[in-house]
Amino acid sequence: MEANDASDAPEVLQARLIDLRTEHRDLDDAISRLTLAPPDDQLLLRRLKKRKLLIKDRISALERMLDPDPDQYA
């Protein structure tokens, strides 16, 4: 999550969420293609997978910010 995400308006967070989901899907496609025809550079594949996990964490954090669990405050 970026440092200023918490102070951004919901519309900005929603747009960022869409961008991250798109990037996550694109990375998933790239990883799938590289897995079918293994690259000479395994480091590239590991970096893409790590980036994908980082993006997934950011997506989860933004989703919690946009729709916090109401039971959390009970």
Question: How would you describe this structure in keywords?
Answer:
74 residues; mainly alpha; elongated; 2 helices; 70% helix; 0% strand
What does this structure look like?
There is one protein chain. With 74 residues, the chain is mostly helical. The chain has one domain (7-73). It has two helices and no strands. Helix 1 packs antiparallel against helix 2. The two termini are 26 Å apart. The mean pLDDT is 86.
The overall average pLDDT, rounded, is: 86
Radius of gyration: 15 Å
- Counting structural domains, the number is 1
Large-scale geometry = elongated
Class computed from helices, strands and strand pairing: mainly alpha
Tally of individual helices: 2
Instruction: Give the SSE string.
Output: HH
Residue ranges: pLDDT <50 for 5 or more in a row?
none
Distance between the termini: 26 Å
Q: What is the number of E strands?
A: 0
Strand content: under 5%
Can you lay out the helices and strands and say which pair or pack?
Layout: H1 10-36, H2 42-66
Short summary of the structure?
This protein has 74 residues and is mainly α.
